[in-house]
Amino acid sequence: MSNNHGRVINFGAGPSALPEPVLEEAAKGLFNFQNTGIGIAEISHRSKEFTSFIANLESLIRKQLDVPPTHEILFTQGGGSNQFSAVVLNMLARWRLLHPEAPAEEAVMDYVVTGSWSKKAMEEAKRLGGGRVNAVADSRQFSQTGKAFDNIPSHDAYKFSRDPALIYYCENETVDGVEFSHEESSPAAFPFQLLGQSTEKQLLPLVADYSSSFMCRPIPRLADHAIVYAGAQKNIGPAGLTVIIARKDCLVDVDAAARLGAAPVPIMLSWKTLSDSKSLYNTPSVLSIYMTGLVLERIDSLGGLKYFEDLNRRKASKVYAAVKEGQDRGVFQKKVKDGSESWMNVVFEVFGEGAEKRFLDGAEKKGMKGLKGHRSVGGIRVSLYNAITEEQVDTLVTYMNDFVAEETKPKAEQ
Ligand SMILES: Cc1ncc(COP(=O)(O)O)c(C=O)c1O
Questions:
Q1: Which atom of ligand 1 is nearest to the CA of 239?
Q2: Do residues 227 and 320 lie in contact, with contact meaning Cβ atoms separated by under 8 Å?
Q3: What's in the keyword line of the UniProt record (predicted)?
Q4: Residue 392 to residue 103: CA distance in whole angstroms
Q5: Which of 146, 178, 250, 370 could be a cystine partner for 12, CB 3.0 to 4.6 Å?
Q6: How far is the centre of ligand 1, averaged over its atoms, from the C-alpha of 27 (Å)?
Q7: How many CB atoms lie within 10 A of CB 397?
Q8: Alpha helices, DSSP H only, in 47-198?
Q9: What's the pLDDT at 382?
Q10: 174 CB near ligand 1 (under 6 Å)
Q11: Is the CB of 83 under 6 A from ligand 1?
Q12: With contact defined as beta carbons under 8 Å apart, do 217 and 305 qualify?
């Protein structure tokens, strides 16, 4: 256990670890934000100090991700789940404005389903109606059991629609540990080449959920996306803040679309509302924004996303190497197919009667928590978000190696 405030190593999937220097700074801000004499959770969101803080947060995100001027950065609440609905409503409104005369069933929403979260997003699209939902590819079809989300499908499996209202994917599936590769030549990369190029007349309605991989490395082809969104609570801050990177043509007048037959959109779900009000239509999650700003400043001072990309690559490869070592000795089993593994959430099984519990209990004794897999899939999940240090990963890897040695000792020695 670290001697810093009795803290353990938290490998939880979200909310998850935050950098300790940020927690210390935030504790000061809780009492007195930027020498205003008012704590951050108490200050007006319209004060000049807070509005300049949020403007700085926006510019830090823009700088780190190289967000082009075609896109705005919006802040809201409600997490990824709220965006499941907002994506459908705003993108259908946009489609309606582009096709004022077309029958509603011509609005097709393309969903790439590679795990529990994209499946959930697609279910919300079906629930809200207003168009047809097309599962472009469902990775379960390509798993050995026909049921597991354990792979990124190969490119020939994708059946995109012509001129859809939206094309949706989840970059990193937090529960299942499946992620699109960022190597352009990899068969597990997102098949951007199948979508064609955005033209001035026809901009790609591409939407990506980056909730659990935001700011862990650069976003490939960001400029080709209509929307990228993420809840803060994995890599950049506490729960309560959602970041949306929205191409300007998606900030549509939802009321004008409703007059043409689109579904009315709750005012707070309209991206245009957020844009028009500079993300201050209502009281935002001030504390979460503050802490996210501190995390972004830290990312910047450490060398930006390049630093985190290198660090996160090393962290993930160390853990996967330990899983492989355990797998070769019959103790662990990686759940995800080669090439589709997540950098952020490493999932594996522990073989043997009571072995999973022994693994978790032993980890806890060594001050490591949050390793239990999601309740829907079981097993072990190691979340390696930005705040997890390489030393902490080394501690885990040593423990994994020791566990494997112990489990494979001849019975007489145990
Ligand atoms: C990839 C992904 N998308 C969406 C969500 C839902 O986010 P929220 O809990 O912020 O609504 C999560 C939550 O863990 C997630 O990991």
A1: 10
A2: no
A3: Aminotransferase, Transferase
A4: 56
A5: 370
A6: 26
A7: 18
A8: 48-65, 79-98, 116-128
A9: 98
A10: yes
A11: no
A12: yes
Strands 166-170 and 71-76: unpaired
Q: Which residue has the tokens 């930005």?
A: 386
Q: Quote the CA–CA distance of 77 and 239 in Å, as a whole number.
A: 9
Q: Report pLDDT for 413.
A: 67
**One-character DSSP codes across 83-122:** HHHHHHHHHHHHHHHH-TTS-GGG-EEEEEE-SHHHHHHH
Question: What is residue 321's predicted lDDT score, i.e. its pLDDT?
Answer: 98
- Per-residue pLDDT tens for 86-96? 999 999 999 99
For residue 103, what are the contacts with CB-CB under 8 A and spacing of at least 6? none
Check pocket membership of 237 for ligand 1, CB cut-off 6 A.
no
- Scanning the structure block, which residue is given the tokens 């662990």? 332
Query: How many Cβ atoms sit within 10 Å of the Cβ of residue 136?
Result: 22
- 255: alpha, beta or left? (left if phi > 0; alpha if psi -120 to 50): alpha
Which token pair is 150? 């354990």
Query: Which parts of the chain register pLDDT below 50?
Result: 1-3
Contacts 24+ apart (CB under 8 A), 16-23: 16/233, 16/234, 16/370, 16/383, 16/385, 16/387, 17/385, 17/387, 17/388, 18/237, 18/238, 18/291, 18/295, 18/387, 19/295, 19/298, 19/386, 19/387, 21/298, 22/291, 22/294, 22/295, 22/298
Protein residue whose Cα sits closest to atom 5 of ligand 1: 80
C-alpha torsion 17→22→25→30, nearest 10: -50
Roughly how many angstroms between the first and final C-alpha of the chain, as a whole number? 26
11 lines ligand 1 (CB under 6 A): no
Q: What is the pLDDT of residue 362?
A: 98
- The SS3 assignment for 380 reads strand
| SS3 assignment for 224-263 | HCCEEEEECCCCCCCCCCEEEEEEHHHCCCHHHHHHCCCC
Q: Is 231 in the pocket of ligand 1 (CB under 6 A)?
A: yes
Within 10 angstroms of residue 68's Cβ, the number of other Cβ atoms is 11
Specify the DSSP element, H or E, that contains 333: strand 332-334
C-alpha R_g of the chain: 22
Contact present, 385 and 346 (Cβ < 8 Å): no
User: 316-334 burial by CB neighbour count: b if 16+ within 10 A, else e?
Assistant: bebbbebbebbbeeebbeb
Q: Which domains does the chain have, with CATH numbers?
A: 33-300 (3.40.640.10), 305-407 (3.90.1150.10)
